[in-house]
Amino acid sequence: MGSTLNGKTVVVLGGSSGIGLATAVAAQAEGAEVLITGRDAERLAHARGVLGDKIRVGQFDAAHEKPTRDFFESIPHIDHIFSTVGTLVHDAKLAPSRAELRPAMGVRFWAALYACKYGAPRIRSGGSLVFMSGTAARRPLAGAAVASASCGAVESFARAMVLDLAPIRVNVIQPGYIDTPLFDGLLGAQRDEILRAAGAKLPVGRIGRAEEIADAVLFLMKNGYVNGTMLTVDGGGLLV
Q1: Per-residue pLDDT at 144 exceeds 50
Q2: β-sheet with 230-233: strand ranges across
Q3: Which whole-number Å values give the CA distances from 48 to 17, 158, 191, in the listed order?
Q4: What are 217-230's pLDDT values in tens digits?
Q5: With respect to CATH, is domain 9-234 assigned 3.30.460.40?
Q6: Is CB count within 10 Å lower at the N or C end of the chain?
Q7: Taking a C-beta distance cutoff of 8 angstroms, is the pair 57, 33 a contact?
Q8: Secondary structure (H, E, C), the chain
Q9: Closest CA relative to residue 172, chosen from 232, 121, 115
């Protein structure tokens, strides 16, 4: 019989929407106790409506040390942590200022580091951490060099944590184009048209759904022999 999340405690950093929320829903459906975090009160309220009133939420920026430490210290034990935290900054020719570029690198990396520093000590035997990077780690995005670099940074960090945190497992999910609210602000009124065109270029003929990434994240949590893996879920996008 395969492993299950029934009775496990799962923390999703950045779980108020998109891939994070889809993962929280999937873990809860398997019987896990789920805790989610996010920065936006409105999105967290929506997530609570989806997951139910008993869900525990934390409103803070997971790239900031003190609130992340306080959150983890309030949890007696954890089985799995998934961090979706990251941001994208348009930086063609590195035109933005240093202050504008810093979040594109720092948010993803520091959230992962604090998850390890303060979350890992509470992870029970058989538990794991999963970080989210992106296929930009292997095929950089034009005009988003720093965000692409952050994907590579968190993957290198994860591989090092496999050794430092053993026997806790550490893996990375590497999504391609996924239909999430992230694109609403980035693409505006042309969102659907641009995503359809992007999907048409993929071997599967469409972009991915958040639920498909969530399914892969749960696999990384439940399979006790998967460790140090960068799991690509991109519809074959890296091949074309």
Answers
A1: yes
A2: 56-59, 33-38, 9-13, 78-83, 123-132, 169-175, 230-233
A3: 11, 30, 27
A4: 999 999 999 999 99
A5: no
A6: N
A7: no
A8: CCCCCCCCEEEEECCCCHHHHHHHHHHHHCCCEEEEEECCHHHHHHHHHHHCCCCEEEECCCCCHHHHHHHHHCCCCEEEEEECCCCCCCCHHHCCCHHHHHHHHHHHHHHHHHHHHHHHHHEEEEEEEEEECCHHHCCCCCCCHHHHHHHHHHHHHHHHHHHHCCCCEEEEEEECCEECCHHHHHHHHHHHHHHHHHHHCCCCCCCEEHHHHHHHHHHHHHCCCCCCCEEEECCCHHHC
A9: 232
| Cα gap 99→213, rounded to integer Å | 31
* Pick from 169, 217, 199, 171: nearest CA to 20: 217
Domain map (residue ranges) of the chain: 9-234
Residue with tokens 């299950």: 4
Distance, in Å, from the CA atom of 85 to the CA atom of 23, rounded to the nearest integer, reads 13
Q: Output the pLDDT for position 25.
A: 98
How many residues belong to the chain?
240
Given a cut of 60, whether residue 104 has pLDDT beyond it is yes
Nearest CA to 140 out of 86, 91, 201, 190 is that of: 91
| Rounded distance between C-alpha atoms, residue 60 and residue 46, angstroms | 16
The Cα 128–Cα 162 span in angstroms is 10
Give the bridge partners for 10, in sequence order.
Answer: 34, 80
